[in-house]
Amino acid sequence: MEGYWCFLALLASALLLGFCSVVFALVWVLHYREGLAWDGGNAEFNWHPVLLITGFVFVQGIAIIVYRLPWTWKCSKFLMKLIHAGLNTIALVLAVIALVAVWDFHNAKSIPNMYSLHSWIGLTAVICYALQLVLGVAVFLLPFAPGSLRATLMPIHAYFGLLIFGTVIATALMGFTEKLIFALSSPGYQYKDSPPEAIFVNVLGVLILVFGAVVLWMATRPHWKRPQEPDLKISHRNGGTLDKEGSTMTDCSNAEKSDVEFNSEAARKRNLKLDEAGQRSTM
Amino acid sequence: MEGYWCFLALLASALLLGFCSVVFALVWVLHYREGLAWDGGNAEFNWHPVLLITGFVFVQGIAIIVYRLPWTWKCSKFLMKLIHAGLNTIALVLAVIALVAVWDFHNAKSIPNMYSLHSWIGLTAVICYALQLVLGVAVFLLPFAPGSLRATLMPIHAYFGLLIFGTVIATALMGFTEKLIFALSSPGYQYKDSPPEAIFVNVLGVLILVFGAVVLWMATRPHWKRPQEPDLKISHRNGGTLDKEGSTMTDCSNAEKSDVEFNSEAARKRNLKLDEAGQRSTM
Question: Which parts of the sequence are annotated with region: Disordered (chains A, B) (predicted)?
Answer without folding.
Answer: 228-264
